[in-house]
Specification:
It is a single chain. The chain has 304 residues and is an alpha/beta fold. The chain is built from 13 helices and 13 strands. The N and C termini lie far apart (69 Å).
Length: 304
């Protein structure tokens, strides 16, 4: 055992790694613990994995040990490592994250790739407009803006706190995105933000990864999601899991240009229902796409 009050105690990077791994073995697989450790050494010590391995005998300061102990306790409580270090990577780009935004998922990277492959050769001028509805950290909007520099990108979210994080990520990635603080479920109203922001504005691409988890399904979520990620971005109050998809589809049909495209990330169990919904709303060339695990995860529709 070791104690910070023991002035004779000296901990090396190698012994810190052993202590870190032993502290978390009951809660996480070994490979995941190792990944956590090296993410923290890069964040807290400024050392890459190879640096740590080459400097295993280097002494770690007491202040640094305290930071690792704090991280261990947070991990024991199932707090996501991305919130602990305050950042993550998405589509090859760095993003700040905190408890105001969802942690970007790999399947959302597939959605961005799906969009990019569909439109990368179709942007001929700066009037090409994209809007990301429910942007959260801004990961979709910013990744598209970075890879499609000729497009004008908008991003909408109901949460001001989320938009504050997204603005930080815009600056971090040196792109331009115009943010709008509004509730997409209120878009049919004739007054307020909608008239101010969307008068005569038409889009070529509308994309969204909206909330679709019913409150009654909370018990199905893992603690690291349920206890830490923002419920506003996860759950719908109604028992209709399509409420956001339906509203966004109707908004899209009204605001997309002819042959404009609508993209959604979806719950894997909603594939057939989403095909019917887009058909009912008048979209054509509907494509339901699976992710790398073979799950229905993305859908595209085209406005006539």
């Amino acid at each position: 055992m070791w104690c910070l009050d023991d002035k004779r105690f000296r901990m090396t990077l190698k012994s810190l790694k052993s202590y870190f791994e032993n502290s978390l073995l009951e809660r996480y697989p070994e490979t995941e613990i190792t990944s956590f450790f090296f993410m923290l050494t890069e964040k807290l010590l400024g050392k890459r994995r190879i640096d740590v391995v080459l400097e295993y005998n280097e002494i770690v300061s007491e202040i640094e040990i305290v930071k690792f102990k704090d991280s261990i306790e947070r991990l024991k409580n199932h707090e996501p490592i991305q919130y602990i270090i305050g950042e993550t990577e998405f589509y090859g780009l760095p993003f700040k994250v905190n408890a105001s935004v969802l942690i970007p998922r790999p399947e959302t990277e597939e959605l961005v790739s799906f969009i990019h492959q569909n439109i990368k050769n179709k942007i001929s001028n700066s009037e090409f407009r994209i809007i990301d509805i429910g942007t959260g950290s801004g990961c979709i909007a910013i990744s598209l803006a970075k890879n499609l520099p000729n497009a004008k990108v908008f991003a909408l979210d109901v949460s001001k706190e989320a938009l504050n994080v997204a603005q930080l990520n815009v600056e971090l990635n040196s792109v331009e995105v115009e943010f709008i603080n509004a509730n997409i479920l209120n878009w049919k109203q004739d007054t307020g933000i909608w008239n101010l922001e969307f008068v005569d504005l038409k889009f070529d691409i509308i994309v969204s990864n909206p909330p679709y988890v019913k409150v009654s399904e909370k018990s199905l979520l893992r603690p690291n999601v349920l206890d830490f990620e923002p419920h506003l971005a996860l759950f719908i109050e109604a028992e209709d899991p399509l409420v956001f998809y339906r509203n966004i589809s109707q908004f899209a049909y009204k605001t997309l240009r002819t042959k404009g495209q609508l993209f959604f990330e979806i719950n894997e169990y909603l594939g057939n229902k989403m095909v019917k919904l887009l058909n009912d709303e008048g979209f054509v060339d509907i494509e339901l796409k699976q992710d790398i695990f073979g799950k229905d995860r993305m859908i595209k529709g085209v406005k006539l």
